[in-house]
TrEMBL record:
Main location: membrane
Protein name, entry field: Outer membrane immunogenic protein
Outer membrane protein beta-barrel domain mapped to chain residues: 31-241
Gene Ontology, cellular component aspect: cell outer membrane
Signal sequence interval, chain numbering: 1-20
Keywords: Cell outer membrane, Membrane, Signal
One Pfam entry name: OMP_b-brl
Keyword match NADP: no
PANTHER family for the chain: BLL7405 PROTEIN
UniProt-annotated location(s): Cell outer membrane
Presence of keyword Signal: yes
Family, as annotated: Belongs to the Omp25/RopB family.
Amino acid sequence: MRLLTLASITLASLAGSALAADLPSSKAAPLLAPAPTADWTGFYIGANVGYGGDTFDYPVNVARVGSGSAHLTSGGVLGGGQVGYNKQFGSYLLGLEADIQGTDVKAELGAGGAVGGTTFDGKAGSSLDYFGTVRGRLGYLATSNILVYATGGFAYGGLNSYAKGSIAGVGSASLTKDSDLTGWTVGGGAELALNPQWSVKGEYLYADLGKATLASGNILGTSASLSVKPTVNVFRIGLNYKLDAFDVASVIAKY
């Protein structure tokens, strides 16, 4: 009799447990885990490619004659790399970035023809061989993974200017001048974090590289000067890789 009673209680208990398992739970469903967010603080390196162009101005001044300026439209591709550091403050970001790139941005004017049976031809222009900046960045996180920013700072570049001409039966002449230029830049862009390490960006910069004197002195018996003032609009895309503490320590140890 005792064995029967014990068996009945055990069966009843098991049945109750099974029934309870089939009933809806009164506990609240667990909340979904928040999506991972980007941490923008740290060092990064990257590469970029784009297009640049605007105008190269050539101010000329001739004593007793006057002054004026020629304007040549410039354009060409560019590509290079960048390195920088970001510090995130909530939804805001402060950063510093340096970049350098080789360019094919150039402006050229060619002329040729014949006057009184004498033929002539020539060309003149300038090419921006390299271009770089050192800029601050002030950004705002539109979302945790999307950064919009304004940027500005120091700009520099290397400019090669030249003039070549010839007159049939008279001869030819050429002038070449390399100039290291400095100026300023300002712009903005947007950057998307793809994952904790990689991000892509689109960026616009306007740069004024100052002024270089190409020729100055006594020309044909009078005082004259010729200069060049290059400006450039840069449209580029870039890919950045965020360095972790181990990467930074390895670079420091190597050098």
